[in-house]
Automatic annotation (TrEMBL):
One of its GO terms (cellular component) is cytoplasm. Residues 13-413 form the Glycosyl hydrolase family 13 catalytic domain. Keywords: Glycosidase, Hydrolase. It comes from Staphylococcus muscae. This is Alpha,alpha-phosphotrehalase. One of its GO terms (biological process) is trehalose catabolic process. Signal peptide: none annotated. Pfam families: Alpha-amylase (PF00128). Belongs to the glycosyl hydrolase 13 family. Its EC number is 3.2.1.93. It comes from the Bacteria.
Amino acid sequence: MKEQDWKKSVVYQIYPKSFNDTTGNGEGDLRGIIDKLDYLQFLGVDYLWLTPIYDSPMNDNGYDISNYYEINEQFGTKADLRELLDAAHTRGLKVILDIVINHTSTEHEWFKAARQSKESPYRDYYFFKNSQDGPPTNWMSKFGGNAWQFDDQTEEYYLHLFDVTQADLNWNNENVRKALYKILNYWIDFGVDGFRFDVINLISKGAFEDSEAIGKEFYTDGPRVHEYIHEMNRKTFGDKDFMTVGEMSSTTIDHCIQYTQPERQELHSVFNFHHLKVDYKDGEKWTNQKFDLQQLKTILMDWQTGIYEGGGWNAIFWCNHDQPRVVSRFGTDLDEAMRKQSAKTLAIVLHLLQGTPYIYQGEEIGMTDPHFTSIAQYRDVESLNAYHSLKSQGYDEQEILTILGQKSRDNSRTPMQWSADTHAGFTTGTPWIDVSPNYETINVEAALEDQNSIFYMYKQLIALRHTHDIVTYGNIVPRYMGHEQLFVYERNYEGQTWLVVANMTNEPAKLPEDIEREGDIIIENGTVTGGYLEPYGAYVLSIESK
């Protein structure tokens, strides 16, 4: 595949259930995406990433797949997907499908057959263990509780690193791999343009032993993971005009370089989440903790320079369906003017980094966390599990709601805000999850009418990436890393130098005396007065190369 086909591209992530509903049932659908393709084309993105749309009981909103070959009827039909692909391709847009091949739903026919008999050939598609003394190991599920579930039908435990209804697949079994490659090739032949592989670095399990922590050292970037991904590449997409990105859980820079070095023939790019744990307390997600700017800068720059120097490739992002809204998280949503200012600066900081940028639906208009006030408003299984866990630990109701309001995955899953109409123009029915109450002022219709809106900043940044090679291919040099308010870095390429300067706080920031002041303004979101950059201000300066 030619580099220019994807390295200069921008991806827009769609969470179909919350994007646009054309049936009035309160849930988004494929036809709703078709109806908004002109909007996405106008924004200027290149790829659309759809979170899972396959048959599923929806215990984890589609990441529990029960049939890889069928479309979940709540989203539509294969004919709708075919029409979506054709309509997208006509507009120069490509479509990436999200696929989960670390585990299946326990409603999948493979797992049902595995439960019927210990002699079933599908038994070895999963990890079943006999244990007379409780769970075989002390590994913890990512969603809480032990990672082994007792199966009454065959009186053995099966492994589930995520929800109890998501049984992990045994990639050691060659038949499992062949079956999965067949699935991938089916969708490649159908005409999709890429895959986003969910938690792909967990597919190789090591020894089944008790852990000193939660078990992840036995399955994260496991012993055969690179072998498996290389084989998958060779058996499916490797010789196609295709883009792949792997979601990496608790990974390392060294592994991600290996996953994405072109000569290794594994993946094109990788997601890592280390920079989105800077508001955890002692590594614990479910805490009321503000983010650490110094830690955020250090992690981002370590990954930027490490991946670049190693010849790998990053996916860069602030938001997705599993993360809170960035303007509420690293900016501010308490004041309307500062919401716009901080959202634009966060966009500048991210989109001038090296790697492939991802925009999550609504990010381009500065959608915020919904600030739910009742546990009854939450739908996410992980959030509900956390609620009960915190309750059992003695936390009071308001404290738990504060924590969920800061960390829940539902913060990003509220309906897309299209207009000031009822339910933000998302549906004529009752939405499956509450719309954020600020939809009357924060919506696409209003953003398109305001030439100074967040939307047009994103449009400008996308155009910069398309037209300036320095954004794609330039190296990155961290600057003034110790500054308590500023995030500053350089991009350098073929005699060009761009300087990115951003105030990441709600107070004016004193600029260093020796910072470059002269050059051409590439993009600007804030003024400098008396040597101070205004709160949440940012600018990009083209200066003489060093």
